[in-house]
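2024-03-11 09:14:02 INFO queue: dequeued item RNA-editing substrate-binding complex 6 protein domain-containing protein, len=291
2024-03-11 09:14:02 INFO validating residues
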Amino acid sequence: MKHRSLLRAVCAHVTPCRLEEFSEQEVANLTYGLALVRWRDTGLLSSICRHVLANASGFKPRGLSSLFYSLGLLDFREEKFFCGVCNHIQFRLPTFNAQDISNTVYGLGLLELSHQGLLSAVEAEMSGRLEEFTGQGLGNVVYGFGLLERECPDLLQAIADHTPTRFDDMTEQNISNIVWAMGNLGFMDERILEGPRCYDKEVETATETHWQMLIKVKPQLFDGAVWCLRNFAVDGRSLLLDMQESSFKYSVYTHHTVEGQLLEASRRSGACGLMALTQTKDGLLVFGRCR
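2024-03-11 09:14:37 INFO prediction written
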């Protein structure tokens, strides 16, 4: 295909020497463009990592966070680069806006690369800045922490307190990311679990929870909810019954998002497959894989 030839030519042309001619924004844009088309040229990516590590102080927060996000999408790990740049970022974190922080944590999560100093700095920085984050930003940060299995109860509690006021700003994927991550970390808050209420505008009465509605129309969110419930060992809720009914409708299931594909492949992802809720003779709801 023609675009493959072009990408090969570009990657061959951008040698380490030529990379010095690129501005920091151009380096970030180049990496992001490769990530969007999932073009993983290890030689060029290694050169970019060495270049950025040597010039990190000249990169703006948006450039550094974009690189983390892009390398995460490309599943490209260069531990010396990430360790060095994380050491640098943790002292500049107050200059990062909410999107920069969420992109950074999300990228680290996708790569399963944990950095104690930076993640501790993120926890401290976010606690007083939650209002600055979009629904997607909150979802991506919590999802990143979930992938890293980073236990941060104080931050999770702050997010659990804050999130119910932001449901109108969140997409189904944002909510699913938060629920899955909190479930993976064993953190329970019923306000998050139940989701926002869905109202019938004509009669102005509550009809069903947002989660109950979502699992009926968007099956790719199902595993996130089940993973959460399985970790919380919640029983006897109407949501469980609706999920039980829904699970049989989607016994053949494929993840449709990048996040879902990564979740499917994750070593820790016991929920994917699809997980179904079934009822024993004693009336207990149990989790198992759909066949």
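2024-03-11 09:14:37 INFO annotate: The two ends are 38 Å apart (CA to CA).
2024-03-11 09:14:38 INFO item closed
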